Amino acid sequence: MExxxxxxxxxxxxxxxxxxxxxxxxxxxxxxxxxxxFLLIGFAFSHFYNRVERLLTEEKMMQNQQRTVVCAxxxxxxxxxxxxxxxxxxxxxxxxxxxxxxxxxxxFKNPLLSLHIGQKxxxxxxxxxxYVVHSVATELKSKEQVYLELRVPARNYYQLxxxxxxxxxxxxxxxxxxxxxxxQFPHDGSSPSLPASLVADALGNTTLKTIxxxxxxxxxxxxxxxxxxxxxxxxxxxxxxxxxxxLQSSVSLAVLVIxxxxxxxxxxxxxxxxxxxxxxxxAYVDELTKLxxxxxxxxxxxxxxxxxxxxxxxxxxxxxxxxLINDHFGYEFGDSLLIYCAKVLPRYASKDGLCARLTGDKFxxxxxxxxxxxxxxxxxxxxxxxxxxxxxxxxxxxxxxALGVSLIEGRQTTIAPAIxxxxxxxxxxxxxxxxxxxxxxxx
Length: 443
Known about the structure:
The protein has ten helices and 16 strands. By secondary structure, the protein is of the alpha+beta class.
């Protein structure tokens, strides 16, 4: 078990390096996935946006066209009705002379109805100022040629239209056969201009056409009987709001997805950082005793030796017969012995020294010393305190430890030779004093 642990600790620095590369690779993969998801979401919303726009456009064009056709039909009906009444009156005048005809016209008490003498080619209707003028030619009983005129306020026709031409975002245009504007509503200057070329180009050889200009729809209907052209100009503000809402929703969802991915990335980086810390802990800290392990000891000792101003001693302590202790008292008791040593030994490392667990039953100290007497006293104190560890009950078992010391008096760049040259032996003691200790000097 100890051998497996030690080999794992020695390979941990390599694991750390590979883990750092793996973390970079994971971050790049997450970023790539984030970009890919963002592009996919953008594509999906673009497709959705285009489909919604197409469907709404088709629906709006159809509604606009239906509304314009209804308005045109209503307008033609009213125009034909007024003209028909005028024709009936003209047919009635054919049975009367001029005086009688004038009296008949005056009896209507309608200042908008008039009788004119003479023969004149007049169109079925025309626009004069604020009025639509209907004209009908007839021949009186006295063989005189006259024509009747009925002037109808143009607004009357618009008020009869059962369609939403009075809303703030719709404008209605009535054009003659030459595409000149006869009437437009509203006529307060808020209506957009409607060039004749636009109507002519849009119609071509058709009598009904709906076109789109930006977010506006223009439906053109050619009315029968030469009554001209009706144009409904609809500025689709609702459609604009829908497009804006869809766009805002798309951006909001994309931002939300990005935030979720960033949070996921930060969470994964945090977990990865924790995992890296655990690897560092396993690489440089002994799990049982919480002391630095051999890897940490070797790397940190190089820094200490490079800036050393005093001699250093490498002290290795070996717990003899640890396997026998584990077999006799149990592994839990053997672990408690190691933990006890891990609490004692760091106190005897100098301020700028190190204490670590070297292997399963060995500990190592790197400490500065001023003289051999000081070092001797330190060794005696270590042995004395370690041997205070008591075994359970009335066990006659005696703790046996071995010590080895290597002195580093010259400037060394590595501590490995000093560790390799430590000679472990049980010290000869008398009254707690070390009488015999083999000390290897490294120059």
